[in-house]
């Protein structure tokens, strides 16, 4: 199925999941699938970076493996870890077997040799805890690996990702190199709070998702809330587009548009008035100073 | 196709976008898998694979338009013959154009010679005398015109005292032409500042890492050690120590935004903005005659917006003359009470009080509350007590007074300060290590006077020749 895919089919599949993609997004996803390269997605918060991953995982039927980054994340949390408890438990339970096994040997040296020949038993995949990245590599089905908010992690973690993302492999000292069974579709998202290193950028396709154009945003609102008539949706989006030019401390993004649409549809508002905006302004503005600016804009627009 | 892409990549590189060979291979592969059905898709493909930064999108689009404008995509349905005709026509046009060009060249020498013949010796003498005018002898706008001409040649920045003659007329005129042109920072300047800061961070990191490693020194954390070693059958392989609470170093910065030092404070603000949250807890104030705290704005607004707000006088009135005495008084009244944690104090200003009350006793009180006081001034030492400059008086209260003239100077000074501040809060063992490391470095006291003035090495950060203010 994957080999038949084109940009258009991806956009259609996403649309069926309620995600309205533009050409750039469709092309990027198509390329990422065909070239087996990760996509680095940047853009302001709330424009649907994570949403894209979720919609893709559903529409392409790739199970999603999500890795949320934070300051101080390391390989034990992202790649793999050894399950010490289980190892101890097994040695305890197998004590009698071990005794029997070792009692055959004549002296201590031989016993040690016998034991070390079985060492690999205790450092096998049986005792390996698969963390998100390894789990997505070991998945039988092609999976979707979402590395969310990579800009929150440290430089060291970024460097750790380089091997995984360019060669789709994980080096474990005790086991050797584990290569991915099926190369996952990797999506990295970033809010741009920190500059991502060029080395990582070089390994990825770069997709910038900004605020959508007017038409697309109207379609997004209508796709999510069919009960809202087009005139209202258009009015909302036009208003929010003006609000975005106000230099607010937190500009309303697509997620705010959708929240607002939901509120308006619950309140059964058919047309925007200064009162309607004033009543629901808390949904679009998230700072005290922004509240005032937006209510003023509403009076100016609809008053 | 490979050749076209490679040439395109070369053009991109010339325009300042960094593209690695691997990325151009990606581009070729992408074009291979997707095909070149339309211009739009090809543009999207090339952009996806070659450009890895939002700020470069504009440049990319421009280069793309320029590069692919002449090579129209060939429609397979088009007749080959018409295509041929078009090509011939184009070639023809090229030839006639070249011919015209040649004709132009043939014509050109004529009038030039005529002009030459009309120049008489008096004119030449006049021209010569113009170049001999000493820029220091003039003042006012004429002086500034000269400054513009000499900017390239001048190795050293002009002395601020001479440059901004305290004459209302010049100030007014100066505002009109040179001042407004440099209100905000361009994307490149911000990127360059990022560069300067990241270099600084790298240099600082060595010390910080050492400190962080030793951060855990302390008493044994019994409960967490037991928890952690549960998996080892309670044999304490991994020891957890009680962590000492460590705060980010605090810093209070007062920036003069009046005309005379505005450039310096702008860069200072940008520097702090970039540094903020990385390793500092900064409170920033701007002042002129009035004082205003801008910490919140600096953290939440885009820098350029803030700069615009400052320039339009929304925050404080820019038309007033700066008065240090009043600013200190206001700072004591409104803010000194809630200064806590013994912050380091940086004041950026020229110390020109416009003959007002000095109020230097307040500096003494501030000094009591702060760990360290640093004054940055753009003026050379010899002018510190000239005219209305109170630098000598104010400087006597500070731990250190530094002359900063370039962004490099500024970043060096701030780096030194950070190191000092960090070292002060560090564990005694770290402090010893740092002291030893410092002693091991060969330190030439003369470097202090030489730094930043080395004319051979161009400063790292010099977009648009603005490194001198």
Structure description:
The complex is a heterodimer of chains A (303) and B (469). Chain A has 303 residues and is an alpha/beta fold. Chain A has 3 domains: 2-75 and 134-208, 3-Layer(aba) Sandwich (Rossmann fold), CATH 3.40.50; 80-126, no CATH class; 214-302. Chain A is 52% helix and 13% strand. Chain A has 15 helices and 9 strands. Chain A has helices at residues 7-16, 23-35, 49-60, 75-78, 84-93, 95-103, 108-117, 132-138, 155-167, 198-202, 214-224, 230-244, 254-266, 274-284, 288-302; strands at 39-42, 64-68, 80-82, 128-130, 144-148, 169-172, 176-179, 185-190, 205-208. A 5-stranded parallel β-sheet of chain A has the order 2-5-8-1-9, with helices on both faces. Chain A has a two-stranded antiparallel ribbon with strand order 3-4. A two-stranded antiparallel ribbon of chain A has the order 6-7. In chain A, helix 11 (214-224) packs across helix 12 (230-244) and helix 11 (214-224) crosses helix 13 (254-266). Chain A is elongated and about 100 Å long. Chain B has 469 residues and is of the alpha/beta class. Chain B has 2 domains: 1-100, no CATH class; 187-210 and 247-465, von Willebrand factor, type A domain (Rossmann fold). Chain B is built from 21 helices and 6 strands. Chain B has helices spanning 2-14, 21-34, 39-50, 57-68, 80-107, 109-118, 121-131, 140-150, 160-163, 168-179, 187-213, 222-228, 262-275, 295-300, 303-311, 324-334, 361-369, 391-395, 407-425, 428-440, 447-450, and strands at residues 250-256, 281-287, 291-293, 344-348, 372-377, 400-403. Chain B has a 6-stranded mixed β-sheet with strand order 3-2-1-4-5-6, sandwiched between helices. In chain B, helix 13 links the parallel strand 1 (250-256) and strand 2 (281-287). Chain B is flat. In chain B, 23% of the residues are buried. Classes of the chains: A alpha/beta (303), B alpha/beta (469). The interface between A and B is medium-sized, with 27 and 31 residues.
């Amino acid at each position: 199925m994957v080999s038949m895919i084109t940009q258009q089919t991806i956009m259609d599949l996403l649309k069926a999941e309620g995600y309205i993609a533009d050409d750039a997004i469709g092309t990027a996803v198509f390329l990422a699938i065909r070239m087996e390269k990760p996509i680095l997605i940047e853009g302001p918060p709330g424009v649907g970076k994570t949403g894209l991953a979720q919609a893709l995982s559903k529409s392409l039927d790739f199970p999603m493996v999500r890795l949320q980054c934070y300051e101080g994340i390391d390989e034990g949390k992202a790649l793999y870890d050894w399950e010490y408890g289980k190892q101890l438990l097994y040695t305890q339970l197998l004590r009698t077997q071990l005794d029997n096994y070792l009692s055959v040997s004549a002296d201590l040296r031989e016993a040690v040799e016998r034991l070390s020949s079985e060492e690999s038993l205790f450092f096998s995949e049986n005792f390996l805890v698969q963390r998100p990245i390894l789990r997505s590599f070991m998945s039988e089905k092609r999976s979707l690996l979402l590395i969310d908010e990579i800009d929150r992690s440290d430089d060291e973690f970024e460097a750790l990702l380089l091997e995984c993302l360019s060669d789709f492999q994980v080096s474990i000292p005790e086991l050797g190199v584990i290569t991915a069974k099926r190369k996952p579709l990797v999506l990295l998202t970033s809010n741009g709070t920190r500059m991502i290193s060029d080395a990582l950028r070089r390994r990825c396709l770069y997709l910038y998702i900004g605020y959508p154009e007017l038409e697309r945003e109207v379609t997004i609102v209508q796709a999510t809330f069919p009960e809202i008539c087009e005139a209202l949706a258009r009015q909302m989006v036009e208003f929010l587009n003006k609000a975005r030019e106000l230099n607010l401390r937190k500009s309303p993004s697509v997620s705010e548009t959708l929240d607002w649409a939901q509120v308006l549809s619950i309140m059964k508002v058919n047309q925007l008035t200064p009162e309607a905006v004033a009543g629901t302004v808390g949904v679009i503005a998230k700072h005290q100073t922004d509240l005032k600016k937006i209510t003023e804009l509403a009076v100016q627009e609809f008053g | 196709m490979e050749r076209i892409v490679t040439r395109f990549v070369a053009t991109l590189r010339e325009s300042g976008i960094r593209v690695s060979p691997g990325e151009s291979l990606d581009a070729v592969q992408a074009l291979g898998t997707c095909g070149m059905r339309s211009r739009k898709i090809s543009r999207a493909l090339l952009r996806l694979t070659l450009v890895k930064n939002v700020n470069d999108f504009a440049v990319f689009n421009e280069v793309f338009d320029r590069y692919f404008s002449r090579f129209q995509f060939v429609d397979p349905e088009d007749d080959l013959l018409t295509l041929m005709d078009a090509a011939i026509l184009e070639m023809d046009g090229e030839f006639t154009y070249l011919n015209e060009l040649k004709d132009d060249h043939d014509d050109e020498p004529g009038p030039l010679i005529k002009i030459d013949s009309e120049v008489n010796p008096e004119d030449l003498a006049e021209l010569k005398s113009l170049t001999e005018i000493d820029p220091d002898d003039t003042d006012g706008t004429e002086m500034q015109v000269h400054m513009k001409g000499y900017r390239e040649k001048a190795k050293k920045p002009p002395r601020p005292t001479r440059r901004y003659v305290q004459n209302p007329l010049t100030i007014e005129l100066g505002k009109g032409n040179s001042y407004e042109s440099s209100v905000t920072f361009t994307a490149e300047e911000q990127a360059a500042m990022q560069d300067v800061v990241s270099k600084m961070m790298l240099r600082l990191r060595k010390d910080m890492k050492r400190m962080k490693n030793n951060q855990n020194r302390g008493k044994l954390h019994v409960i967490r050690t037991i928890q952690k070693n549960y998996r080892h059958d309670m044999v304490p392989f991994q020891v957890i120590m009680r962590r000492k609470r460590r705060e980010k170093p605090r810093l209070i910065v007062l920036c003069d935004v009046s005309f005379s030092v505005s450039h310096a404070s702008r860069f200072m603000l940008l520097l702090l903005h970039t540094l903020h949250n990385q390793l500092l807890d900064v409170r920033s104030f701007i002042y002129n005659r009035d004082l205003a705290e801008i910490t919140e704005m600096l953290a939440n607004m885009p820098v350029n917006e803030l700069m615009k707000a400052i320039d339009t006088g929304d925050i404080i009135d820019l038309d007033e003359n700066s008065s240090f005495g009043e600013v200190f008084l206001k700072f004591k009244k409104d803010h000194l009470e809630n200064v806590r944690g013994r912050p380091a104090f940086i004041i950026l200003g020229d110390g020109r009080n416009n003959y007002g009350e000095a109020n230097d006793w307040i500096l003494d009180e501030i000094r009591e509350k702060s760990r360290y006081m640093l004054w940055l001034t753009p003026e050379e030492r010899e002018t510190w007590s000239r005219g209305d400059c109170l630098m000598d008086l104010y400087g006597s209260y500070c731990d250190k007074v530094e002359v900063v003239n370039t962004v490099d100077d500024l970043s060096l000074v701030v780096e030194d300060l950070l190191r000092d501040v960090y070292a002060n809060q560090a564990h005694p063992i770290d402090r010893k290590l740092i002291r030893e490391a410092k002693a091991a470095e060969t330190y030439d006291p003369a470097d202090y006077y030489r730094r930043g003035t080395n004319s051979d090495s161009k400063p790292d950060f010099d977009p648009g020749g603005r490194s001198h203010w």
